[in-house]
Amino acid sequence: MAERVSLTLNGTLLSPPPTTTTTTMSSSLRSTTAASLLLRSSSSSSRSTLTLSASSSLSFVRSLVSSPRLSSSSSLSQKKYRIASANRSFNSTTAATKSSSSDPDQLKNAREDIKELLSTKFCHPILVRLGWHDAGTYNKNIKEWPQRGGANGSLRFDIELKHAANAGLVNALNLIKDIKEKYSGISYADLFQLASATAIEEAGGPKIPMKYGRVDASGPEDCPEEGRLPDAGPPSPATHLREVFYRMGLDDKDIVALSGAHTLGRSRPERSGWGKPETKYTKEGPGAPGGQSWTPEWLKFDNSYFKEIKEKRDEDLLVLPTDAAIFEDSSFKVYAEKYAADQDAFFKDYAVAHAKLSNLGAEFNPPEGIVI
After folding, report:
1. Residue 322 near residue 259, CB atoms below 8 Å
2. What are the per-10-residue average pLDDT scores of the chain (372 residues)?
3. Can you give the pLDDT at residue 90?
4. How many other C-beta atoms can be found within 10 angstroms of the C-beta atom of residue 72?
5. HSE-up of 251 (CA within 13 Å, CB side)?
6. Total H helices, total E strands in the chain
7. E strands present in the chain
8. Helix axes 124-135, 343-359, angle to 10 degrees
9. What is the distance between the alpha carbons of residues 269 and 324, in angstroms, rounded to a whole number?
10. Is-contact 216 101, C-beta < 8 A?
11. What is residue 227's predicted lDDT score, i.e. its pLDDT?
12. Of these residues, 133, 240, 262, 354, which one is catalytic?
């Protein structure tokens, strides 16, 4: 759904990646936004200065989930080189075939490495966004795999990584590159979803009932066309959210629950076209300072997003058109009010919606999946 979730879920390290994050079910220019309703964000048990986001696309909820910021001095050619480098590295490993599946022991070990990465890089938002944007391209009306999109690892390919909604996600690939190389028995599709769910849990969110065994799309020709992810500022926000998420097979409750992932992360105007360059919550980082968050403690997963959106009392906190819609639309409002008042109810529904999103369009081997 900007660093945003909701709904919102998208290489070779040339230098140590920045540690800042920018959802959603989630980072493009406002004119081409694909809001991260799916949220871009990151987590931490301690308060930090601030959803599925660097992207206006749900980027999944392009704000919902955030990503380490590129240096302000980086030129367009440098950004393109990073993307190309990331893809050379990710594609140098043989892609999983339909007859392969992830190794359970490697999945468990990779999860511990992801926890360590989160504790040092504070990259929870962008990892949430990575999983959401890979899964959020699913179209329930297309039966063939991988043409239907969804959680198949196709986001690692240059053609999809360059979609406007995925701006900045090259940083996410750089962050997990070493983990993928270390655990070659894990598919990219599984690694993206493992990183996303682990980031939510490590930020203080609910345990996500995940399963693994996703098969990877094999090449760039398997990437979906651009435009399947949500926009943060469409003319009719509620209608737009329903068009995008209903296409995935999700419902109003899922949409609002996933929007809550915007409790993590911040939006950077240079990336998404939304947000302030800096606020009192983001001027000191962690990581590269700047951007505008939805909540004061933007690395902590709780129900504060709903409280802040409802009150709209702090000008330093971000409210996108798609955020405002959850309290303006009569059906969405029922769930938004409930989550603002009851964090346990939010956590319960969010865990279900996140797991549902992470499975969209996936081909599992074995068919029942792997639980770790």
Report:
1. yes
2. 39 38 38 37 36 38 40 44 51 44 92 97 95 97 96 97 92 96 96 98 97 96 94 90 97 98 90 87 85 94 96 92 95 98 98 98 95 94
3. 56
4. 8
5. 5
6. 13, 4
7. 5-6, 38-39, 266-267, 292-293
8. 50
9. 19
10. no
11. 92
12. 133
Q: How far apart are CA 130 and CA 65, in angstroms?
A: 8
Q: Please spell the DSSP secondary structure of 134-194, one letter per residue.
A: HHTT--TT--STTTT-SSSSGGGSHHHHTSGGGTTTHHHHHHHHHHHHH-TTS-HHHHHHH
Beta bridge partners of 57: 35, 231
The separation between the first and the last C-alpha atoms of the chain, rounded to the nearest angstrom, is 27
**Residue pair 57/29 in contact by the 8 Å Cβ criterion:** no
* Distance, CA of 134 to CA of 112 (rounded, Å): 22
Give the pLDDT of residue 334: 98
Q: Measured between alpha carbons, how far is residue 63 from residues 126, 148, 232, 275, 331 in Å? A: 10, 25, 8, 9, 22
Strand partners, 35: 57
| 262 classed as catalytic | no
The closest of 171, 136, 169 to 152, measured between CA atoms, is: 136
Contact 176, 117 (CB under 8 A): yes
The rounded distance, in Å, linking the Cα atoms of 26 and 57 is 5
Distance CA 165, CA 55 (A): 6
Is-contact 25 52, C-beta < 8 A?
yes
Please report where in the chains the tokens 């690694």 appear, as a residue: 191
Main-chain dihedrals φ then ψ at residue 242, nearest 5 degrees: -65, -40
pLDDT value at residue 20: 39
Residue 77 φ/ψ, nearest 5 degrees? -65, -35
